[in-house]
Amino acid sequence: MTSFLNISTARIALSTLALAALAACGGGDEAPATTQAVAIEFAAVNGLANTPVSCASVLTGMGTGSVNAKLTDLRFYVSDVKLITASGQEVAVTLASNDWQLTQGGHGLTLIDLENDADTCAGDAATNIRVAGTAPVGTYTGVKFTLGVPSALNHLDATAATTVAPLTNNDMFWSWTGGYKHAKIEVNPENATTAGIYTGGMTNTAVTPNTTANTFNFHLGDTNCTAGVPLSSSTCLSENTSTITMTAFNAGTQKVAVDIGALFAQSNLQVESGGAPGCMSGQTDPQCQAMWSVIGKSFSLDAVTGAITVSSLSADDASNNAFRSGTTVFRPIAK
């Protein structure tokens, strides 16, 4: 005969199994999730064929001379990421806490690092390909972000004990009052006389006698800056951050391409014709003059007074501002 104890034990066991089954089916008193994970990935490519770019690969058809080149650096800051609903509502992404991301002063900031210190690259082995965080549960059809460091964070001292990652990266800090480099993208063109050699590939026409250089630099940063005391109070007349909007973007199936070929499409990579090497955001630098139309900014210099006129800094004109409208340099591609 079955004892009362055995019957009770059996009933308790069955009750436990039933509760477990109910929980597995989503029953019980658990509240539904209110947030969902978000991961927006970036990948370096060359051209509309989306040819992958790495530190070890040869970039073909680069610039106005259609030359070969090799990557030497590819890092940039992304801030204030928002997802966009079908109705146009913008929803901020809450960043996860890690060494690549910072939430401070009402802004979210991520350092994207697509170089790994291999071959010709001169950064370090660590990489970060994504903005990671959460957003309210919902259906999103687009993404919007700012390329660069917000003004409120841009003039922190990278070496100060109170500054935290990713703003402690000295490679991304300007050596003058401008703050941080919003983007640091560099390539070495192939030597014009020695195929397969990626040193001495640039002829310098700005000095006599001509000399050669290795690297065409694209350093995007703020300009026309005035130093403040403390440093964090510095101001810049030209805040060269760029807002990039992709109205059709699915983070689950797509990633953001960074097209190096499109970035340098208007540049002669084998000639240094004045100013800083390559383009370091100097408004009148000859190399920058060729790149402003790609970046979506316009500067003009008064030959008499030397005054600089800045225009198109905030206008999103999809017809001639492809860098910022997310159709050329930054654009969605399949994962």
Automatic annotation (TrEMBL):
Keywords, A to Z?
Signal
Q: Where is the signal peptide?
A: 1-20
Which superkingdom does the taxonomy of this entry point to? Bacteria
UniProt KW Signal keyword: yes
Domain Copper-binding protein MbnP-like: where? Answer: 36-281
Spell out the protein name for this chain: Methanobactin biosynthesis cassette protein MbnP
> Which species is this record about?
Sphaerotilus mobilis
Give the taxonomic lineage as stored in the record. Bacteria, Pseudomonadati, Pseudomonadota, Betaproteobacteria, Burkholderiales
